[in-house]
Design goal:
The complex is a heterodimer of chains A (289) and B (390). Chain A is of the alpha/beta class and 289 residues long. Chain A is 38% helix and 23% strand. In chain A, the strands form two sheets. Chain A has a six-stranded mixed β-sheet with strand order 6-7-8-3-9-10, with helices on both faces. Chain A has a four-stranded antiparallel β-sheet with strand order 2-1-4-5, covered by helices on one side. Chain B folds into two domains: 95 residues, no CATH class; 218 residues, MetI-like fold, CATH 1.10.3720.10. The chains are: A alpha/beta (289), B mainly alpha (390). At the A-B interface, α4, α5 and α8 of A face α13 and α14 of B. The complex binds adenosine-5'-diphosphate and magnesium ion. Chain B: One of its GO terms (molecular function) is phosphate transmembrane transporter activity.
Chain lengths: 289, 390
Amino acid sequence: MYSEATTESPETTESVTAMTTGQTDTSTQAQTAGTAEKNVKVKAENVRLWYGQTQALHDLNLDIHENEVTALIGPSGCGKSSFLRCLNRMNDLIPSVRIEGQITLDGEDIYHPDVDVVQLRSNVGMVFQKPNPFPKSIYENIAYAPRLHGIVNSRRDLDELVEHSLKRAGLWREVSDRLQTPGTALSGGQQQRLCIARAIAVNPEVILMDEPASSLDPLATATIEELIDELKDRYTIAIVTHNLQQAARVAGYTAFFHMGEIVEFNDTDTLFTNPREQKTEDYITGRYG
Amino acid sequence: MSTRRLTGSANDPHIRRRYRAEKRFKAYCIGAVGIAFAIIVAFFTDIISQGYTAFWQHQVQVTLEYNDRSARLGQFALDSDMRDIASRGATRSIPLEMEDNPDLMGTTDQRWVPVKAEIDQYLKHGHDLPAELRQQVDALADSGRIQSAFNTRFFTTGDSKLPELAGIFSAAVGTLYVLGITLVFAFPIGVMSAVYLEEFAPDNKLTQTIEVNINNLAAVPSIIFGLLGLALFINFFGVPRSSALAGGLTLGLMTLPIIIISTRAALRAVPDPIRQGAFAMGCSRWQVVRDHVLPSSLPGILTGTIIGLAQAMGETAPLIIVGMIAYIPEAPSGIFESATVLPAQVFTWASEPQQAYVEKTAAGIMVLLAVLLTLNATAVFLRRKFERRW
Ligand SMILES: Nc1ncnc2c1ncn2[C@@H]1O[C@H](COP(=O)(O)OP(=O)(O)O)[C@@H](O)[C@H]1O
Ligand SMILES: [Mg+2]
């Protein structure tokens, strides 16, 4: 799975590779072959969403490319979070929600009746706006889900997985000597990286991030942004942000949302420098929103 | 200009009046606190001053003779002049002892036995005694053959018609049994109902109705639960009257809504992002509840449960109806046997005419309060210790 060995610890990578159920990763091969065009990992077609009687999303179409960061921007209340929650079916938890249209992950309909949401959510991880580590130790925060899903069998594998995930999230050096302390005792930025490590631990293919840095100070934000940039080599990332500079810095593609519709979707450079739509231009030049 | 405006205001009659009103209001509040505190102090002083003497008991040194006559009636083991002084209870078991151990025949034994309640009261409070007996007691006291000792018997025996022998033990055991049953009955049902209502149930008319009714149930007078317990457990299910099982289940009915309500409050205090995070990791709803919500809310649930139990423990009204307020001297050895509980024991003693039961009543109240305070302190401790700041 991880064709590029981690610089930190080759053995760790190896064991994790051994643990994951073998999935062929065509894109990585394509990437090494030097193909410019990326695969579409997640495809949303005509997605409509209602909260009770109120329609929040209108006929959305969006392709999220593999091993890329896709930013969702737009004024608040325009449906970015609602859309993001469709992608790992977190909206299922809201009783009043009704969804139409189709969303596929690697061509597989994620709303198909046979789909197991547990399976889906371990393939599509999520990081929330406010860091929400479990009120457990740092170790437990990460070990919890792999143990629950039976990804690892032995204590040693689990230890390695925890270390590996923390290294991926750039948190290992800061916490390696206090894995048994509560995750909630970390600083905000560290907590958010812990949440990212937690999401990585179940080896997802897609990571959804809903304004992951909006509650952090500038320094912690910069760290998270660097991390996102590193993570995109292995994961497909969709990130909601209200910070346009952030979108410009981290994202390869950007979708501009407005009132439950995607007004414009393009690669980030084009969208920011040469928007097709007037609304997009107004928004990115700060005329409203 | 601005300074004059600030200082000048002190003489403004409006502002002076406002300050006076504030002072007056503060004084009223302090007065209210003072009254409340005085009532508490008066209550404790009264109970303790009446009750502390029950923890001491006068004893008299006697020589027991094991002979033919005492094998028939224990009283005969005593010198005839001691029979009016030593408690009858002290010699009651001698025939049995001798039957069990025939070697005792012909021996004598010197020991300290409790004095009769009237004599104990005379020595403690100077209550009236016939002149002859009084002289005899005074003489014994002067020669050191009557002494006051810590009344361990109070904690090791059950109720008795002889006040000098009556103790709190069987009521304490009964309370343990009853509360144990209450806990076993109400805790799982209460917590599971709360978990269902809070974490699983859809928000519809039916669950709303259930919710309102549970809240109302908590306000139902406890005697009604006694009637329900009588009808349901004793008459319908045939649980023995006066048994710890009947009492425990009845109090369980009463405690159930308290546990449900406090558990729901504890569950609601767990922030939603914790649940969201767990769901996003692929947890099922049950796993979210089991691994994240319940562990986080356990201190709150336990606190609520302890408070519910403490309330149940002090309850007498429903127990009257299921027959637990009665003269029950033996500690129960099972849940089907007749039992009584601490407040019931206090009630029974309070309705006895003899003077000696007055101090027993007060001492019983002290024991009851001590247990209740311990329970409440445990609840406070749990809450403090595990209080989580999110
Ligand atoms: N749980 C919900 N129930 C009802 N309406 C909601 C819910 N969540 C969001 N909405 C509504 O849907 C619209 C889109 O919200 P959201 O997706 O949170 O926007 P964004 O993340 O872009 O700020 C808003 O009008 C919001 O009020
Ligand atoms: Mg949002």
